[in-house]
Amino acid sequence: MFQFEIGVTGLSGVDGIGGMTSLVRPDPSLASAWAAMMADFGGWAEAHGSGYWAFDTPPPIGEGDCAAFVDGILAAEGAGAARVPNSHYWIAEGDELVGYLHVRHELNDWLLEHGGHIGYSVRPSRRRQGHATRALALGVRRARELGIERVLVTCDDDNAGSRATIERCGGVLEDVRGDKRRYWITTS
User: Where does the N-acetyltransferase domain start and stop, copy by copy (predicted)?
Assistant: First the structure.
């Protein structure tokens, strides 16, 4: 289903149908692409996996704000706002940023119930193009490289798109707790 390779900028995946989705590390040199992505999101509300919670208040989203945002989320990777070691990625297709993906290297009690190992989002104009599925598959691969044998991925119970993405990536539903569906994906 997926072929994977390590690229110069990070992990990348090819789905055989067309479309290249890659995970790149946040970088201030991508400020223009980041600001365009954030304008498409319309703010932080749907930017899951972005890391904006590492800030006391949601940061500004203009092109000139990118460097401070990148500095803040990378500084939080040790254990920052997620309170566990974690890694942030931007989902890219070529030179365009299409979303966010966040890998938590371990789970605390809150993440076990609500957040899981991987959070992701794709900007509204680029949804339904396979980016979320390819990015989640790459995130699962990154978790395997970190030595995680099974990852927990959650989504809102009413989010049919995310539910389908997780299931396409091998997610097996464990249960629904409140409004969260909880899936486990084996990384091997």
Answer: 22-188
Rounded Cα distance between 128 and 161, Å, is 8
Structure tokens, 19: 């479309």
The owner of tokens 């590492």 is: 54
Quickly list DSSP for 68-109: HHHHHHHHTTSSTTTSS-EEEEEEEETTEEEEEEEEESS--H
Could you tell me the pTM of the whole model? 0.86
Q: What is the pLDDT of residues 67-113, one digit of tens each?
A: 999 999 998 887 655 578 999 999 999 999 999 999 999 999 989 98
151 pairs with which residues across the strands?
A: 185
Cα diameter, the chain: 43
